[in-house]
Specification:
The chain contains 20 helices and 36 strands. It has 892 residues and is an alpha/beta fold.
């Protein structure tokens, strides 16, 4: 994260420089100054090195975490008339901590999160027309992907209206970031990741055969428990006559909407019987969502264990059909039931907001692929996204980001949102919006799980309630002002969170008013669920990362007697655990209510679980680290306590998951290195995403994940540096896990289009693993070791399974995503020249591919190897299934 900060600083510095000389006078025309700077500054960034420590830079002395730092060259060009004066500031978004700026004309100050203030010094003399200034920035860690650079730095001068610097007001990072080439994609010199190129993609795809239509005609996604494919086919061109005895009106409407989207005729005479009979199921099939589907000459029969099962049976029928050619169904007999009860997708709408329409489209796809839990991460430091009747400040203030240094009208800008609210940095679901999402989900068998993250990641709530406190305090009504206050005003703790916020990122767990807030919010959310007949059955507490990152393993005391070279040196005596300087929390510790400050987050979780249980909500859910100081699941008052398990496998998560399950928690596999969809698709600096857990997770990797035998994955995948690791379970746990969830965090995802690009198509691979346990997945066995040298996994069976899945996706499912308006990621094809001919392939066979011999000016369809005289200008790309969108083009 520190890299972006540095970059931001640079851009700020440059912008500052541009205003230094010439014809415009700040004192007389502050707005003219702002307008000129915003319109004239051309800012660009270039990664110089990612291995500062190895290059001799004093990363440790500068206090870089893990003594790791890099250099970014920020270049600013004044593309206009000269500008004079230094009474202005530039505010920069940067996800990396800036350690130093090698330019005496500027100073930089960290405000909060990723926002920095760049100010010209007295030595700054201004920029002449057309002048270029270079500003090297030293920042923490590394910069490996272009999306590490955040857009929309902005200019402020006095009372003038802030303006975004136009050259950075774009989602096209290519416009202001130089290509990260050579070995700059490596995190450390030992990094063994293979850069994604046309040739490396071709090699990776080369073992995935293109299957005939007949070979996959009875294959559906997700894979059923049992399928019997019989000779014969049913022509349904004349249309179905529905005989429904299982679905309510909303469920039937949901099915009919999907059917009509795919071109299915529902006005004919082919029998489509839909029934429910729980007694017809036994064993592993006697669970919610189980169904039987029979297609033969007599028509189609769907029998569900419950109405959800009947709905899923219909989805499987539609899965056998092609978009635009939904006239023929193979004769099949399917018996099916879900692998996991919990098959989830988490969508973070807090860091950046995503529209109701995007969420509804996602719900439609979840239903099609039998996912049943929509986990909405509704609040975080960067935004509160749900209207709560009676607490208007949460959305009036906490859902908006703008330039208000007092933060009484909005939160300060973050993550590239700039100074105004006219983007997805701001926004919220009104009560009506949320009710619509609930109804839409209910009709499709999907539970909506609201997450109100606490006690950490709560800055939007804390700031909003401080604005509320101030409002009522100024009216002299201190009782009302204090009712929902979330911070102890006497708390002087020096804390830095993972995203570089201070103590205002935390709800104080020691205040009665914090519990008032919890009760109020749960009551209002519960009332919304009750209004649509979807009782609130799960409350997600969040609970993650309630810590001071400066007290973690990457730092050491600068006064250490025997310092190590691989840690950053800081003054640890000035760092505190959260709430350590809160008199209210000190009192709880002194009284023995809580053993120490580290246990306060888990103590708060237990208190909230009691509130949840008292309100008749049976499931309490959290990220597992928020509960780590509780004894076990018995410490919580609800019927069930669920944890989203998000430890990285190669950092010990392959073993610790079983310890959590053995303690009685319903474990939901949520590992960042396999099912976080904010990670890049491949090792290519032009892909979007964070990469702290893994350098890349594509659809194939997610498909190959073994969620219940976590050690197994060490044999089939690598760590974030492209190295092998050992997987070995240590807990003799015999039970299974409760579920699987794929996560989309939104720090780098600012638009709906970017959101869908990151989620689709790989979420469908997560749906496959959540619904179906493959034959190549081995049962967990404590003590059994896996690594790159073992050969326990049947990799031929895994490849055969992936080949089938990839062909069904490329030949059938991607067209359905097109019809649904989903802006999925189009894979970049592989390509090589062999004996004078261009050979191309793609990860999802069936998607159309094209090539250009003139550098991308004209394009031709690719169907077979083609002779090329001059390969120097060859470029390749793929298209969406409907050929309406082009994927990213690359050279050979």
């Amino acid at each position: 994260m520190n890299t972006t900060f540095k970059m931001g600083f640079l851009s700020a510095a440059i912008a500052a420089g541009l205003t230094g000389c010439g014809s415009l006078q700040l004192g007389s025309a502050q707005q003219d100054m702002v307008d000129a700077l915003a319109s004239q500054l051309e800012i660009s960034y270039d990664v110089q090195t990612n291995t500062g420590a190895q290059d001799g830079m004093a990363c440790q002395a500068m206090g870089a975490e893990w003594a790791s730092c890099n250099t970014i060259l920020m270049t600013v060009v004044n593309d206009g008339e000269a500008v004079s004066g230094n009474d202005w500031k530039i505010y920069i978004h940067s996800i990396r901590v800036i350690l130093d700026v090698e330019n005496k004309d500027f100073t930089v100050k960290h405000l909060t999160g990723d926002l920095y203030e760049l100010t010209p010094t007295e030595s700054f003399k201004g920029f002449a027309a057309g002048e270029k200034v270079e500003i090297p920035l030293i920042q923490e860690y590394w910069t490996l992907f272009e999306t590490d650079f955040m857009p929309r730095a902005y200019v402020v001068a006095g009372d003038a209206e802030p303006k975004v610097i136009e050259s950075l007001n774009t989602e096209n990072v290519d416009a202001f970031v130089s290509e990260i080439d050579g070995d700059l994609y490596k995190r450390v010199p030992e990094d063994k990741n293979i850069l994604a190129t046309a040739a490396s993609r071709f090699a990776k795809n080369s073992n995935v055969a293109v299957l005939s239509e007949g070979a996959i005609e009875a294959s559906i996604i997700p894979t059923p428990l049992k399928t019997r494919h019989m000779r014969g086919e049913l022509n349904v061109a004349s249309g179905f006559a529905i005989n429904n005895k299982a679905l309510d009106d909303a469920q039937l409407d949901a099915f009919e909407g999907r059917a009509e989207l795919l071109g299915v005729n529902l006005g004919g005479d082919i029998a489509l019987d839909i029934n429910v009979d729980a007694n017809a199921f036994d064993g592993e099939e006697a669970v919610s969502g189980a169904y039987k589907l029979a297609i033969d000459a007599s028509g189609v029969k769907v029998l569900g264990f419950d109405s959800v099962g009947a709905f899923y049976g219909l989805q499987s029928m539609l899965a056998l059909m092609e978009k635009g050619d939904a006239e023929i169904l193979p004769w099949v007999a399917i018996e099916d039931a879900p692998r996991f009860e919990y098959r989830g997708v988490m969508v973070d709408v807090a860091r950046n907001f995503h529209s109701k329409e995007a969420i509804l489209r996602t719900v439609d796809q979840m239903a099609a692929y039998k996912l049943n839990k929509l986990h909405l991460h509704l609040t975080d430091d960067e935004g509160w996204r749900l209207e709560i009747p009676g607490l208007p400040e949460l959305t009036d203030v906490g859902s908006n980001r703008c330039h208000d240094l007092s933060e009484t009208s909005c939160l300060l800008p973050q993550l590239g949102s700039g100074p105004t609210t006219e983007n997805f940095g701001s926004g919220f679901f009104s009560k009506a919006d949320y009710l619509e999402i609930l109804r839409h989900a209910k009709a499709r068998g999907i539970e909506v799980i609201p997450e109100i993250d606490m006690p950490a990641h709560s800055r939007a709530a804390v700031v909003s309630m401080e604005a509320r406190y101030k409002k009522y305090a100024e009216q002299g009504d201190l009782v009302t002002a204090e009712e929902f206050r979330l911070m102890d005003p006497m708390d002087t703790s020096n804390v830095t969170t993972v995203q570089f916020y201070d103590k205002r990122s935390f709800i104080n767990p020691c205040m009665d008013s914090s519990m008032n807030f919890v009760n109020k919010v749960i009551d209002e959310v519960k009332a919304m669920h009750d209004e649509v007949g979807m009782p609130l059955s799960t409350w997600h507490f969040g609970g993650d990362e309630a810590k001071n990152i400066k007290l973690n393993a990457g730092f050491q005391d600068l006064n250490a007697s025997e310092p190590v070279a691989w840690k950053g040196s800081i003054d640890l005596s000035q760092q505190h655990k959260p709430f350590a300087k809160s008199p209210m929390c000190q009192k709880l510790i002194e009284e023995g209510t809580v053993s120490d400050f580290g246990h306060l987050p888990s103590y708060f979780a237990e208190r909230v679980s009691a509130v949840v249980a008292d309100k008749g909500i049976e499931n309490f859910q959290a990220w597992q680290d928020g509960l780590k100081y509780s004894k076990d699941a018995s410490a919580f008052k609800t019927e069930n306590t669920r944890v989203n398990f998000w430890d990285v496998l190669y950092w010990g998560g392959d073993a610790s998951a079983y310890d959590w399950a053995a303690k009685g928690y319903d474990l939901i596999v949520s590992n960042p290195d396999y099912v976080y969809m904010d990670m890049p698709y491949e090792v290519d600096p032009k892909e979007r995403g964070y990469y702290w857990a893994t350098r890349a997770t594509d659809t194939r990797k997610m498909f190959g994940f073994a969620p219940e035998n976590l050690p197994q994955n060490a044999e089939t995948s690598l760590d974030r540096d492209g190295n092998g690791f050992n997987g070995k379970g240590t807990v003799d746990y015999k039970g299974g896990f409760h579920g699987l969830s794929a996560q989309l965090w939104s720090e780098t995802v600012r638009t709906d289009e970017q959101y869908e690009y990151m989620v689709f198509p790989r979420v469908i691979a997560a749906a496959e693993r959540a619904w179906h346990k493959a034959d190549w997945e081995l049962d967990y066995q404590a003590g059994k070791q896996f690594n790159q040298d073992t050969n326990h996994v049947n990799k031929d069976a895994q490849l055969q399974d992936w080949t089938r899945f990839a062909n069904v996706m490329g030949q059938r499912e991607m067209a359905k995503l097109d019809a649904s308006g989903i802006n999925y990621r189009i894979p970049v094809p592989g390509a090589v020249m062999q004996e004078g001919k261009l050979h191309m392939n793609i990860s999802l066979p069936g998607l159309p591919m094209q090539y250009s011999v003139d550098g991308g000016k004209t394009w031709a369809d690719y169907s077979a190897p083609v002779a090329i005289e001059d390969a120097s200008k060859v470029r390749v790309r793929a298209l969406s299934a409907d050929k309406q969108r082009e994927g990213r083009a690359v050279s050979l």
